[in-house]
Amino acid sequence: MQDAYLGIDIGSISTKGVIIDNNNRILASTYIWTEGDPMGAVKKLLRILQEQLDEDNYQVVASGTTGSARKLIGSMISATIVKNEITAHAVGTTTLYPDVRTILEIGGQDSKIILVENGIAVDYAMNTLCAAGTGAFLSSQSKRLGVEVEEFGQIALKSEHPTQIAARCTVFAESDLVHKIQMGHTKKDIIAGLCHAVANNYLNNVGKGKKIISPIVFQGGVSKNVGVVAAFKEALGCDIIVDENGHLMGALGIAILAGRSANHKLFDFSVEDMTFKTREINCGQCPNNCEIICIYRDGQLIDSWGNRCDKGSLRS
């Protein structure tokens, strides 16, 4: 029986999971929508991964979580390791591309840039305040245009005159988009313009003041859009690496970190069948008035966080 390692990247829009072996080869993987229910999404994700895994030859002995709901899901699955997405994405990318110097990442509702030197992340920036230029932004515009977002890239590549669209924020972009439609710009030019707007918005906000050096790896769900990839290539004047598993890079990174950790224990997939609930408690025992989040498994308290002093400490 060979050891395997589970990594889960849980975000506001999508939930990603991988199981890898000792050579970082992906044995099982999936990408599903979170749909406002991170614990429910992870249950579904684990069922899919278990179905894909050859359990006659592999056993999961360590697990890790990353992403916006990493602490919640880490408690839920008793994860070996919990790390932020900057660390997870950097580890996953540098493992596959040791020479990478810049990592561009655009997800469903946020985006980030990571600068790397000698395989180590030395600087980063994130944009979590505005959804302009993210996957959610492109998805909402695709509905307005009556085109599937998956078709955006190929349509954009057919344009010879991309429409100039202001994408500093979602409100301005949508207003400008409606105006350009009414002016008579073609759909392919508008779509190409949106792809360029995403790239330019990213470089002028997330990448502002950052020295972007090649080799460059572009990842996250938006990296699947060839129109946005082409826009980045044009703006930066160099080639862009897009890995076929770029949307799974955070999950891959945290799975690698789980494998490196010393605290290995057999993972129990029966977590899929357990009932989990969360509850918020206002402590009120001191002026901090902390909001404490409690997580229960089959009615038993297993973890809590949010207290800023021992008065709000809860024990499982």
- Tell me the fraction of residues in β-strands, as a range: 25-35%
Q: Widest sheet: strand order?
A: 3-2-1-4-5
Structural class: alpha/beta
Q: Helical residue percent?
A: 25-40%
General shape: globular
The SSE string, one letter per element, is: EEEHEHEHEEEHHHHEHHEEE
CA distance, first residue to last residue: 34 Å
The total of beta strands comes to 12
Protein model, in words:
It is built from nine helices and twelve strands. With 316 residues, it is α/β, with parallel strands linked by helices. Helix 3 (85-96) crosses helix 9. The longest helix has 19 residues, at 187-205. The radius of gyration is 21 Å and the shape is globular.
Write the layout of secondary structure elements.
Blueprint (H helix, E strand, L loop, with lengths): L1 E9 L3 E7 L5 E8 L4 H15 L5 E9 L3 H8 L3 E2 L2 H12 L5 E5 L4 E7 L2 E8 L7 H11 L6 H6 L12 H14 L3 H19 L10 E4 L6 H11 L12 H12 L15 E7 L8 E7 L2 E6 L11
Parallel strand pairs: 1-4, 4-5, 6-9
Antiparallel strand pairs: 1-2, 2-3, 6-7, 7-8, 10-11, 11-12
